[in-house]
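assembly run, all chains below
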Amino acid sequence: MAWFSLIIAGVFEAFGVAMISRLRRKRNWQTVVLLIFGFGISLALLGYSLRFVAMGTGYAIWTGIGVVGGTFVGMVFYGESRDWRRLAFIALILFSTIGLKLVS
Amino acid sequence: MNRSWLRVFVAAFLEVIWVIGLAHAYDIWTWIGTIIALIISNYLMITAGQILPAGTVYAVFVGLGTSGTVISELLFFGEPFKWERIILISLLLIGVIGLKVITGNKHEKGAES
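ok done. output:
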C-alpha cells in the first residue's frame, strides 16, 4: 500500500507541475484550484508512504515518477520530442524504481 | 557565488528538511516546521528557475535533495547502508537528471520539486 501510494503521489506531482505550465498560458482560478489539489494530494500520499518506505528511497521514487509523468504528458499531449535518449532515461527510472521495490 | 545559485542550495537544504519532516514529524510544531520548509523551498526554487536555466537548476536541486535525504537517513535515522540501494538510487537520479537536461532549458518546467 505504501508503495502504491508513493507511485500515485508521483503521478499527482506530475499533474501539479502540468498545472503550473497551464497557469502560464491560462490564468484562471480553476487551474489554481487544480494545482493546489494536485500538490496537496501528492504531498499527503508521499507523507503517508514515507512512514513505511525508507526516506531516501521514497523521495527518489517520488521525484522520478513525477519527472517521468511530466515527460510522458509532454510527449503525448504537447508533441514533445520522443528522442530515444528520453525514452532510455524513462526506462532507467522505471527500472530503478522496480529494483528498489525488490531490494526493500 | 551567484546569489541565484545560493537560492538553489538553500532550497535543496530546506527540501531535505521537509522530507525528513514528512517522514518523522510527530507533533504540531514539527509539522508546522515541515510546512514552512516546504513553502520556502518551493518559493526559492521557483524564483531561481525564473533567473537561471530551469532544467539545470532542477537537475542540481534534485541531485542535492536526493543525496541529502539518503545521507540524512544513514547518519541520523539509523537506516542500514545497502550497496544495492545506493546504486539503484544513483541510477534513478541519472535518469531524472538526464531527462531534465536533455528536455532542455527551453521549458520552464520543473521549477517545482
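Residues 107-113 of chain B have pLDDT under 50 and may be disordered.

The longest helix of chain B spans residues 28-51.

not gonna interpret more than that til we talk
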